[in-house]
């Protein structure tokens, strides 16, 4: 069972999974409570990964997952919305299996990347289409987590850099959260980079609003960029 879980994990994180692969994965989880418990046990072992929320992100890369011209392909809704399930009583004793699976998985894919909703390796860039139509372009060695609710859309940048192309939604602001503060989209396209003690923002189209952890505010307009730390934002420059 551990081998099956690891195989699914590696496929879905490879950037080559097709819409049919997502359908097959969800069918495998729904086919047997043992499968679902094994998956939950492993993802819980891997630092609370949110693999169960596959509907928020669909990656495109080489192979079948990206047709000619690297076009973005949203998976069919059936491929990304898991069916409701009843949580059955009784737990499957997989503590040792989960630990072994975590060890094997780490040999193929770093655990800190597995624990993120989307991640890239050294020398890799990857494009993602989100469920709201927004797009992310992750730079090399980058990690993000996603939190989409009826009230807001949030991308938490854990490491590296992300370029965001935001789909309009007047009811749900689009936020990029870093260790130093929040970047709120007032337009469509911008880049955010997480550095050791500060965040760098470059705006390509329209503008963004920055709020630091201490509550300071600033606006960065198209064609300019700025850095900010926990307390303040520098003056934007071209």
> Could you give the count of β-strands?
13
Amino-to-carboxy terminus distance:
55 Å
Rg from C-alpha positions?
19 Å
In one word, what is the shape? elongated
Structural class designation:
alpha+beta
Query: Count of DSSP helices?
Result: 6
The overall pLDDT average reads 74
What series of H and E elements makes up the topology?
A: HHHEHHHEEEEEEEEEEEE
Helix content estimate: 10-25%
Strand content range:
25-35%
Number of domains: 2
Pick out the low-confidence regions: 47-56, 61-112
The biggest beta sheet reads: 13 strands, mixed
Commentary on this structure:
The chain is α+β, with helices and mostly antiparallel strands. Strand 11 and strand 12 form a beta hairpin. The chain contains 6 helices and 13 strands. It has helices at 2-12, 19-31, 33-45, 77-80, 95-108, 111-114, and strands at residues 57-60, 118-119, 126-130, 135-138, 143-148, 153-165, 174-177, 181-185, 189-194, 199-205, 207-212, 217-221, 225-228. It starts with a helix and ends in a 10-residue tail after the last strand. Strands 1, 2, 3, 4, 5, 6, 7, 8, 9, 10, 11, 12 and 13 form a 13-stranded mixed beta sheet that branches. Mean pLDDT is 74; it is low at 47-56 and 61-112. Helix content is 25%, strand content 30%.
């Amino acid at each position: 069972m551990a081998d099956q879980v690891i195989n699914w994990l590696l496929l879905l994180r490879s950037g080559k999974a097709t819409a049919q692969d997502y359908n097959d994965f969800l069918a495998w989880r729904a086919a047997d409570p043992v499968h679902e418990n094994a998956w939950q046990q492993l993802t819980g072992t891997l630092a609370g990964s949110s693999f169960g929320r596959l509907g928020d992100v669909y990656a495109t890369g080489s192979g079948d997952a990206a047709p000619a011209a690297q076009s973005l392909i949203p998976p069919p809704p059936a491929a990304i919305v898991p069916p409701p399930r009843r949580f059955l009583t009784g737990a499957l004793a997989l503590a040792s299996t989960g630990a072994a699976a975590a060890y094997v998985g780490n040999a193929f894919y770093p655990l800190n990347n597995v624990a993120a909703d989307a991640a890239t390796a050294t020398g890799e860039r990857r494009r993602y289409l989100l469920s709201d139509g927004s797009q992310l372009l992750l730079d090399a060695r980058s990690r993000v987590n996603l939190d989409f609710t009826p009230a807001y859309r949030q991308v938490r940048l854990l490491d590296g850099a992300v370029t965001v192309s935001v789909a309009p939604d007047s009811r749900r602001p689009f936020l990029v959260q870093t260790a130093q503060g929040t970047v709120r989209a007032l337009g469509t396209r911008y880049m955010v980079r997480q550095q050791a003690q500060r965040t760098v923002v470059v705006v390509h189209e329209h503008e963004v609003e920055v709020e630091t952890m201490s509550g300071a505010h600033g606006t960065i307009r198209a064609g300019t960029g700025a850095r900010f730390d926990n307390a303040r934002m520098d003056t934007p420059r071209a």
